[in-house]
Design brief:
The complex is a heterodimer. Chain A has helices spanning about 1-45, 50-55, 75-90, 105-115, 130-135, 140-150, 160-165, 185-190, 200-215, 230-245, 255-265, 280-290, 340-345, 345-360, 365-370, 390-400, 410-415, 415-425, 425-430, 435-445, and strands spanning about 60-65, 90-95, 120-125, 180-185, 215-220, 290-300, 310-315, 330, 335-340, 405. Chain A is an alpha/beta fold. In chain A, helix 3 runs antiparallel to helix 15 (about 365-370). A two-stranded antiparallel ribbon of chain B has the order 1-2. Chain B is built from 14 helices and 2 strands. The radius of gyration of chain B is 24 Å and the shape is globular. The two termini of chain B are about 35 Å apart. Chain B is an all-alpha fold. Classes of the chains: A alpha/beta, B mainly alpha. The interface of A and B includes residues 11, 104 and 110 of A.
């Protein structure tokens, strides 16, 4: 008898421990049931601020995801806006899971959307990268939100909203700032070796040779991890804007010529000795430690620059027989805040999600992001200029304002196929694979 | 008989069985199914369909040069683990079993790397190998030597094998030491009386009596080598340099999560399982006692 009781007790304990993880869900379900009961009232009460002040709100937990994590310069602004939002609306709790965007993170976002684990609000890409989650129809359109909240995205410029439309032309995301990609240079190293900042292919190769001879890494780049920026500029300048922005079926001549320059640069000793094995964080550190002279990167990298007196951003110098106009840059607006249907269909979360997005995309919110990015990027609202900008910020302002063309990068057009192209760049640089084969392999994956 | 009624045992066995079914066997069956489809996302997104592509992914296995590299590296790693992990562990176990004092200290010291996470070990070794300011190159610089590219295409496999072997020696050391302690002392004493030296005792007593323990260790080492992932991925991600250090595990991960090629990743997973089962069966056959084989005949 004792054995029976003991075995039943143990089995009961095991079962209880197995089911323990489901407890929270049950509570949530109960809470949601309560929320649902209030839905009728809540649906009508969220019309105006006056009504909000009068009726006590149910506690709301917003699940949010953004790319403003890790070393992103926008992280501080993002967290500050979240903190003030929580202070203003004490019934809103934010469960944030922000990370720096990379391929694995994008795959995780896709997985979350496909299994119904999507967040309530997500700051994500608006280009072809978002096509998979857009196809799930789990993102609410701005028109739908405007029907209930006419003030939504009120500060955002119409042109910025249109630029952040998804590839199907529907506006779902509210953007904050745009981005640019450019050549970061340690100007003090150029001065040390009596070099001019490169303005064309010849001056670039002179700089590479001189730095190489003097034991300085000419270009900080990890071909194994993030060769993206070099892919973009080499293809843009070799192919010209029209061919670069096309979605071809087979490798265009300009693309091939551009990517073939990886081998030329490698043979010149432009990249670090360990470019095949190191990651992007290490590469960035080499540049900031003045062990490398140049680094092609994006506006998000500018927040990491400590020596703002001796670092400058300049236009891509160019390639031999280039087809793009000097000063052409890769950039644009390609991300924004989305509200998911999961939050929209929950009356309490709907209001909180709208408040969240508006806090981040209103004039004051965007101003914070804009300043965090060096106060020089394209802003989605009218921003107040900052006085006393550093030489670094001034160089960015000069670079972006003098841009002859602003073009979105290739991955915004070919989606996942771009990853295959990136994965073959090391082989292209060593000559183990031709640029044409690498491009054709990627283009074959476009559905 | 310990238990007259056996049904209470079921209560303890069924949850484990259900757990295995849910989290191992069902996903594996799903994985096999996925390898026959052209997947455009990790799971089927609402409103989308996957095209059935039959054996296309399996045909690709034979033409993909990266699979060949990964397969060769995995086989090389199997040989390395058997020779060095189990071999060095056996030598250490024999030496430690011979000492009377301090045995516990050596057990702890040799086992210690096993409890450190592979990610931490990988990070530590990647800091050793760094070309710019890595520990090994700092030592070379101290002696006035030029820095060495430790993860060059020629050296990379060896540089990955070293931490992999080092981190698991302690595991096999403990298994083999336990096996050694099971051999009765009187056999050694009788051999010593007959004039058998310590070295001969290892060959004529220890090795033959440890066959089953060796079988277990070799099986674990070989199947472990097939699954190797974390250490190479931390030290040399994406098969760096130039895709030459891909193992089946790292290549599967890169295809699945790096390139979003989920169906091909599923195919590679099937290959890993098939190889794992085949290799462990081969080892079982090779190490089977002769009399057992004759009984079967």
């Amino acid at each position: 008898m004792k054995k029976k009781v003991l075995s039943l007790l143990m089995a009961g304990t095991m079962a209880a421990s197995l089911l323990a993880g489901c407890g929270g869900g049950k509570d949530d379900a109960a809470a949601n049931a309560g929320d649902a009961a209030d839905a009728g009232a809540a649906g009508t009460e969220v019309q105006g601020e006056a009504a909000n002040e009068e009726a006590p709100k149910n506690p709301v937990t917003l699940k949010t995801v953004s790319m403003f994590g890790g070393t992103d310069p926008n992280k501080v602004a993002y967290e500050a806006i979240n903190a003030s939002l929580k202070e203003e609306y004490d019934y809103i709790t934010i469960e944030d899971n922000s990370q720096t965007s990379d391929e694995e993170w994008k795959a995780a976002v896709n997985a979350d959307f496909s299994v119904g684990n999507e967040p309530d609000v997500i700051q994500f890409f608006t280009d072809a990268t978002a096509d998979t989650i857009v196809a799930t129809d789990k993102l609410v359109t701005i028109n739908e939100i405007w029907a209930e909240y006419p003030e939504y995205a009120g500060d955002t410029l119409e042109s910025a909203l249109a630029a952040a439309a998804n590839t199907d032309g529907v506006m779902r995301a509210v953007p904050t700032t745009g981005y640019w990609e450019g050549l970061f240079c340690n100007k003090d190293l150029f001065d040390q070796y009596n070099l001019e900042l490169p303005t064309d292919w010849e001056s670039l190769t002179t700089a590479i040779t001189t730095f190489k001879e003097n034991g300085v890494i000419p270009i900080a780049c990890s071909l194994n991890n993030v060769p993206h920026y070099w892919i973009e500029f080499l293809m843009l300048y070799s192919a010209g804007v029209d061919e670069y922005t096309s979605v071809p079926e087979t490798a265009p001549e300009g693309w091939v010529k551009g990517l073939s320059l990886f081998q030329t640069l490698r043979e010149m000793g432009a990249f670090p000795e360990d470019t095949d094995t190191v990651d992007d964080a290490y590469i960035g550190q080499l540049f900031r430690d003045k062990k490398a002279a140049m680094q092609l990167d994006g506006s998000w990298y500018s927040g990491n620059i400590e020596d703002v007196e001796n670092t400058v951003v300049i236009a891509f110098p160019g390639v031999p027989e280039q087809k793009a106009e000097a000063g052409s840059l890769v950039g644009g607006i390609s991300s924004g805040f989305y509200i998911t249907r999961k939050a929209w269909d929950d009356p309490d979360k709907r209001d909180a999600a709208v408040k969240f997005v508006m806090a981040h995309t209103c004039q004051a919110g965007v101003q914070q992001y804009w300043e965090a990015g060096g106060a020089v990027a394209q802003a989605a609202v009218e921003v107040t200029p900052v006085e006393g900008a550093s030489p670094f910020a001034q160089s960015i302002a000069e670079y972006t304002s003098a841009a002859s063309a602003i073009v979105a990068p290739t991955d915004s057009r070919i989606g996942d196929a771009y990853k295959t192209l990136v994965s073959e760049i090391v082989k292209v640089s060593t000559g183990a694979m031709t640029a044409e084969d690498a491009i054709n392999e990627a283009l074959a994956l476009i559905k | 008989m310990l238990y007259r009624k056996k049904w209470p045992l079921l209560i303890f066995l069924v949850p484990g069985l259900l757990f295995m079914l849910m989290f191992l066997y069902l996903p594996f069956v799903e994985n096999i199914k996925n390898s026959f489809y052209d997947m455009n996302a990790v799971v089927k997104m609402p409103g989308t369909e996957w095209d059935f592509i039959g054996l296309e992914n399996y045909k690709k296995l034979f033409t993909d040069t990266d699979v060949r590299v990964a397969l060769i590296n995995s086989l090389k790693m199997m040989i390395v683990t058997v020779i060095f992990e189990v071999g060095i562990a056996f030598v250490l176990a024999v030496l430690v079993s011979q000492i009377k004092r301090g045995q516990q200290l050596f057990r702890t010291v040799f086992f210690f790397p096993v409890v450190i996470s592979a990610t931490a070990i990988g990070l530590m070794f990647s800091l050793f190998y760094n070309y710019n300011g890595g520990m090994l190159n700092q030592i070379l610089a101290y002696f006035g030597k030029d820095p060495v590219l430790w993860l060059s295409p020629e050296r990379a496999f060896t540089m990955l094998a070293i931490p992999t072997v080092w981190s698991y020696i302690g595991f096999y050391f403990v298994i083999l030491l336990t096996g050694l302690s099971d051999i009765p002392d009187d056999i050694y004493e009788a051999a010593a009386i007959d004039g058998c030296g310590k070295f001969k005792q290892v060959f004529y007593i220890t090795l033959p009596m440890m066959k089953t323990v060796f079988f277990t260790s070799v099986t674990l080492a070989v199947t472990g080598a097939l699954k190797v992932f974390d250490l190479p991925w931390v030290i040399a991600p994406n098969g760096a340099p130039q895709g030459l250090t891909h193992f089946l595990g790292t290549y599967m991960y890169q295809q699945t999560y790096g390139l979003n090629n989920y169906d091909y990743g599923s195919t590679l997973a099937v290959l890993i399982v098939i190889l794992g089962v085949a290799v462990s069966r081969c080892i079982g056959f090779l190490t089977e006692e002769k009399d057992e084989k004759s009984k079967r005949k």
